[in-house]
Amino acid sequence: MHKILIIGGTSESYKLADSLSDYFIPILSLQGNTAKPRLGNYSSRIGGFGGVVGLKAYLLNELIDAVVDASHPYSQQISQNVSRATNDLNIKLYQLHRPAWKKLPSDRWFEVSSFAEACFLSNNLPGNSRIFLTIGKKHLEIFEKSQNWMMFRTIDKYQEFISKGKKYIIGRGPFHISSELINMRNNKITHLVTRNSGSVETYAKIYACRVLNIPIIMVAREEDTIKKGTSHDKIKANLLNHFGLNR
């Protein structure tokens, strides 16, 4: 059976690994940012590759036949490395592109181009603001000195202590609209700071903000020059066709 390396961490990557396991040997690669990642009935590897050179060595050593880049929309570096490595080795690459969320007329979005800009904007909100942050762990430190009350949500525990004016909660999607509404109401949230991940599993917070008329500071994606890919079903069909397994 052919080996397919899936650059993952997204909900789509897990679904793809599951759906390919009857036809291929999928290997799901996870960066290791989550202490207890989801694991399925397929092979997984956790940790970085060591740049393009390390990735090329892995692809050759493991006799990988094709690669699917299903990484997070905000993980531009790994997408660039995958594109370069597969091109150099002439290994077939498929790219799973997750569309961004679209702003509806009733949404109150303030779109910014970086996490630093989001922090600056949140620091200039009224002093009685209560801000809910869902941006992952990587950029949380720049918000820690904010004078406004903030609630951080990450998949894993972020801090062993609770700083003054900061609340840390954990949660993994999929989230439901009802629970997000309760969460925001109970914590008297006035603003949401998030990134446009486009995930179906985390869209409930966007819907809840729409219902509660809560403004969102939305960190836009970098220009996506690498992943011009397609859907989960299309990638599966293309892989089956490429290896002659759809007859």
Q: Strands, helices and their partners?
A:
Blueprint: E1 3-7, H1 11-20, E2 25-30, E3 43-46, H2 51-61, E4 66-69, H3 76-89, E5 92-95, E6 109-112, H4 115-123, E7 130-134, E8 149-154, E9 166-170, H5 177-186, E10 191-195, H6 204-212, E11 216-219, H7 232-242
Parallel strand pairs: 1-2, 1-4, 2-3, 4-5, 6-11, 7-8, 7-10, 8-9, 10-11
Helix pairs in contact: 2-3, 5-6
Write structural notes for this entry:
The protein is an alpha/beta fold. The protein has 2 domains: 3-99 and 223-242, Rossmann fold, CATH 3.40.50.720; 109-219, NAD(P)-binding Rossmann-like Domain (Rossmann fold, 3-Layer(aba) Sandwich), CATH 3.40.50.720. The chain contains 7 helices and 11 strands. The strands form 2 sheets. It has a 6-stranded parallel sheet with strand order 6-11-10-7-8-9, covered by helices on one side. A 5-stranded parallel sheet has the order 3-2-1-4-5, with helices on both faces. Strand 4, helix 3 and strand 5 (92-95) form a beta-alpha-beta unit. The longest helix has 14 residues, at 76-89. The mean pLDDT is 88.
